[in-house]
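Follow-up to my post from last week.
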Amino acid sequence: MIEYIIAGLTNVLNPFTLFLMVAGVLVGILMGSIPGMTATMTVAVLLSFTFTMDPGNGMMLLLGIYGGAVYSGSIPAILIRTPGTPSAAATIFDGYPLSQKGEAGRAIRISTVASFIGGVISVIGLMFFSPLIADAALQFRSPEFFALALFGLTIIASVSGDSLPKGMISGLLGMLVATVGIDPLTGFQRFTFGVPELLTGVQFIAVMIGLFGIAEGMKAYSSGIDDEGKKVDQDIDGILPSLSDLKAIGPVSTASGIAGVLIGSIPGAGGDIAAFITYNEATRWIKDAVPSFGEGNVRGIAAAESGNNASTGGALIPTLTLGIPGDSVSAILIGALMVHDVQPGPALYQEETTLLYTIFVGFLLIYVLILVFGLLGAHYWVRLINIRESLLWPAILVLCVIGAVALRGNLFDAWVMLGAGALGYVLRLRGYPLAPMVLGLILAPIAETNLRRSLSLSGGSFDIFYTSPIALVIILLSVATIAVPAVRSLSSRSSA
Amino acid sequence: MTDDSISASAGDSQASTYGGSVNRRNVLKALGGTGLVATAGCTGQLSGGSNQEWPSRQVEVVSPWSAGGGADRTSRAVADAGESNTDVSWNVSNQTGGSGSVGMSAVANAEPTGHTLGCTAPEICLYQHLGIADLGPDDITPIMQYTQMPAAIVVRENSDYTTVDEFLSYAKNNKVQMANSGIGSSWHMAGAAWAYEAGIDVQHVAYPGAAPAITATVNGEADCATVGAVEVASQVRDGPLTALGVMYDEQLESLPNTPTMQSQGIDIVIGSWLAHFAPPDLPDDVKQSIVETYNTVYESESFKTFMENNNFMRVKRGPDELQKFLDERYKYYGQLVEKLNIQA
Amino acid sequence: MKLSTNALRSSPLAIAFIVGAAVVILFASRFPSGGEVGPGFFPIGISTGIILFALVELVTEDDGGLDVSDHDLRAAGVVLALVFGYLVAMPLAGFLVGTILFLPVILYYSGVRSPTTIAVISLLLPLALFYIFSQFFLVPLPEGVIPFSRLLPRLPVWVML
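User reply:
Got it. Predicted complex:
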């Protein structure tokens, strides 16, 4: 393992790679600081820059953006009571009260250190546990992979959004889109209508850029581009957090970090859910909070921020070991790797160890960069919130188009992107969550090919699913994931 | 710079895939969308018809598969060597999709000036049989094949059969499941051809790529897999796989302990390969110049070093030989696809 | 099941999903049966699921959507139309010229009024992206009928390293 870490470190310390990490972190912090610009959108829109890069370098840029944006979402949460990314929503509870007391600088420093602790814990977890999981997954056959994909699909539908039917419809739509193209098992062309660009299916990345770039842009324009917004006038001074603050947040950051990794590693549960749970747990466990939670307790900020950043590395665990994305950003990362013919899954740990350890070591370094830039730059980042949206959105729209065109060097994918954008906007407007669609797109081919391959191997007998204990347990879990909330919502409706 | 020279260069640009399919080549030419990004600063380089010397401007090689794969990496090595052996720059672009047919069609529909070349593989002999695209060996001008990737049958290390004979006697009494890296891929075809030559019935099981096919073979879901011999060499030497035999006519250096299929009584040489080609109707003098350059490239030290360091075999077929080979493969694959009954 | 006309009117999307899914089932039912579970199995299964959940959606009248009155639908339509036009123009004008034409319009629509700001962004952003993609990343971008972009000087080698 040591030799792999050294190989990874050698790759990461290449000047161009370092440049990409710094650029990724800075862009991530910039976009994350602006309310409405999510980590998912930024990664989707800037993905095209990595198409011709070496996959390791490309991942460094994207992971830098990911970590940076999840961290900096806390800055507007603290300053203007608006989360920069959804995962910073729980940071508002204690961050904003501190800011009102004139202690925004202190709150941001706490959030920076906690993000760093959570991030580092998650990367260490990723580095040590994911190889074990991948090793076990090497024994997984088609029935187990089918069960895993099914589990991912059901859990995403049940955790995202308020309405189970809407989540399910969104996920099923994604799955349906994923069936376009040559059927991987029989070679039959499904819904291709003679269009050669459709033979390999609707391009996932083009759809992602549409859903998270174009649709978000349409939403931003329809709610009104507001350059005035909430101005930040508070000055941030000082660089290092105080020793007493560090002592106060140490244990809660560590505990939230560990919890965040676990939550993040559940397919579909991303930073927003992780932060809410870790914040809630912190308020339950810490009885002696002064000031109490919700009134500007630094430990509240630390719990939320460590939790959401820890979910980043956690989300990569199922992504890299099984090819099943932990959240929307890691779904795009799968797409990014597949552009380079790198297929995430257990075999990755056998064949691409250097790439993997480059990712691990690089992601660790990215969190060091976030700590350094976060502490040194806090004074400047707060100004970013005042950036003019009217200049940003046109640039994002252009980047969306260039991203789709550069994907395969043709305009067809740009039209797909535009269509996905229009659909995504309408869905958002009607309250349909988009995350299930993303997971549906990625997971449907896994679910379908493994189900059908299982059946063809077993000669059509469904025994193959319950003779495998692992597959059976996961399938039962999936059923429960759908059935429990469905029953609960029905019973609450009838009692209401 | 006169307007004439600008529009001449626009007409000169190769057709590409912007918003169109293969059948709409005339529309495409009218629109003139192009994948070429030449930014030559002076007039002389912008003009250039088919009567001109080759190369008179940037040469673009289209890799129909994504960056990082074998076609892309070897094409870049060819382009690098081409650049040092000509006065112009060589650029590799990736136009993927349609199992490679999108990029190959773009080249097949380009102006035949020799400034747009493409990379191709056995798939070009399969598209028409599989109904993927109306593109076959007759639609291109073959230039040179530069590598060969023989197929091998691999089984897991401690399985009951580690030789072809043992495998065949097992297969006579049991239903054998053979993993491949994708339906209609050249590896699927190789496996099918081998089973046919060996006289056994196998169930072909498709996986999304070589890695999952190998994983399935190792964990016992499939009995064997047909994969590129050189690709799996390290896993055979010190890993979980045993290779039954290589479908090639000579012993591979990278698999010193694995005999050829021929030496085990199954006379078959099949697998995958990579070649470069030009659009059809290429003027003879241009073709001559390109082939000469390719001969130099093939023998150049930089190309040799690249191929050796990256475990690609150097195997050459010149234009005429390649044309014959393509025609022969086209017929052969046609028969195979019919036997396999792949839906198209 | 109580399907009120009100529910139908308030969930036009659910209706569209049901119709769309039905069309997909119609198509997929003609797919050949390949092996135990053929290529039509998943599209049909997924579409059936969509129809079921869309029916639930209709019955429950659960309107979890954003408040439409807060949203200027026309503005979203205009943005969509502008990007649409941008894509239509791309094969003709090429990426460089197309973007130089698109940006002033969308910037103006976003509320930017300063001519200097509009001019600077509309020129510098497309040029920067053009150089980054075509020369640094070697990604082919559409050139258009008249490839003006070929007239641009190549970047000196040191910039690319």
